[in-house]
């Protein structure tokens, strides 16, 4: 069997990736500063969003934390994920802060635990649109109401004085994805999450008027947050802390070794496009979880969505009912955050 140079390089990269993750895992085992987890099984979500890369490379770190059974459950990346988390069909997941906030406002059993990264969504528009205010009377594609694009774009609209329910024409389709409608020129705007922005840029489709990784105020708040099922968190505090620690270590790996993380995501079937994974890890600021307070994110989006009529509770009530930062605070001290 002929082995070419590319095969050897790829094998070397995979071996290096495994060695890297296990070196962190071995150090973690040696530290063992806490009692073992109350359960050895953890269920996480798997979906098409690749900006949640830390979740896709965390399994070895979780095993080093004492979880012998790490299960990835196929889940929609939108409303269904929030509901699965609240129903207890998932134990933890990285997910977009806005949709989670809506569910917590309604009493769904979800707890915010830690901010992971800021800025992964980008607003693509067709020619002639220069700002969010220009979306008044325009068509915007979404998979459904209260999905992540709908929630985040509603927050954007209220910030510039638009009423998202009246001033924007939301276009949904059960058969055609919003990105396809935008690529075909059938809608005016589309809010995309990785790998969608990477695809549109590669195909030179539309132009970006908001990049949440760079543009304020969006770049100052977390996009993806680690959340857990509230009952699981209440009953399993030691397991929860270990999950928080493993996920933040995995986030650090996305910063220190992005190429190897991208290859690991492909090797384990979380994404098919290595180039999009590499670009996502370069585009998304995974290095800021130590810099920002996730409570500020909840407060900011709760205010925007309350203005949009999508949230009834005050930010203080949502934080009181749906956030638990004690694990994050402990892990920050341990990891030097």
Give the radius of gyration: 20 Å
Count of individual beta strands: 10
Task: List the secondary-structure elements in sequence, H or E.
Answer: HEHHEHEHEEEHHEHEHEEHHHHHHH
Beta-strand residue percentage: 15-25%
How much helix is in the residues? 40-55%
Count, helices: 16
Extract low-pLDDT stretches: 1-17, 26-30
Strand arrangement within the widest β-sheet reads 7-6-8-5-9
The residue-averaged pLDDT reads 87
Largest sheet: 5 strands, mixed
Approximate shape = globular
Cα-to-Cα separation, first versus last residue: 49 Å
Structure class: alpha/beta
In a nutshell, what does this entry contain?
This protein is of the alpha/beta class and 337 residues long. It has helices at residues 5-31, 53-56, 59-64, 79-87, 97-105, 148-159, 164-167, 178-183, 196-202, 230-235, 237-256, 258-267, 274-283, 294-307, 315-322, 326-335; strands spanning 41-46, 69-74, 92-96, 110-118, 122-125, 139-141, 169-171, 189-192, 207-211, 222-229.
């Amino acid at each position: 069997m002929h082995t070419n140079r590319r095969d050897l390089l790829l094998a070397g990269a995979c071996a290096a990736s495994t060695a890297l993750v296990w070196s962190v895992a071995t150090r973690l085992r040696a530290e063992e500063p806490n009692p073992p987890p109350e359960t050895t099984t953890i269920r996480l979500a798997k979906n098409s969003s690749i900006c949640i890369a830390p979740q896709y490379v965390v399994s070895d770190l979780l095993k080093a934390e004492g979880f012998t059974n790490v299960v990835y459950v196929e889940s929609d990346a939108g409303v269904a994920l929030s509901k699965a988390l609240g129903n207890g069909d998932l134990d933890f997941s990285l997910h977009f802060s806005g949709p989670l906030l809506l569910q917590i406002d309604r009493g769904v059993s979800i707890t915010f635990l830690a901010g992971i990264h800021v800025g992964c969504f980008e607003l693509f528009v067709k020619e002639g649109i220069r700002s969010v205010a220009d979306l008044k009377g325009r068509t915007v594609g979404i998979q459904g109401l209260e999905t992540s694009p709908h929630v985040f774009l509603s927050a954007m609209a209220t910030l510039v004085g638009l009423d998202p329910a009246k001033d924007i024409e939301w276009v949904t389709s059960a058969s055609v994805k919003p990105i396809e409608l935008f690529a075909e020129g059938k809608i005016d705007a589309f809010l995309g999450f990785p790998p969608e922005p990477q695809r549109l840029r590669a195909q030179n489709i539309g132009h970006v008027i908001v990049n949440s990784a760079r543009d304020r105020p969006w770049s100052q708040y977390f996009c993806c947050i680690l959340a857990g099922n509230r009952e699981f968190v209440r009953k399993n505090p030691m397991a929860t802390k270990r999950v928080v620690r493993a996920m933040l270590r995995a986030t650090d790996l996305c910063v220190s070794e992005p190429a190897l993380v991208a290859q690991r995501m492909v090797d384990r079937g979380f994404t098919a496009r290595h180039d999009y994974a590499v670009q996502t890890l370069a585009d998304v600021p995974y290095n800021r979880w130590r810099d920002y307070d996730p409570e500020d994110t909840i407060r900011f989006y709760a205010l925007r969505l309350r203005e949009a009529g999508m949230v009834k509770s005050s930010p203080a009530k949502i934080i009181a009912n749906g956030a638990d930062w004690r694990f994050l605070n402990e892990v920050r001290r341990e990891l030097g955050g």
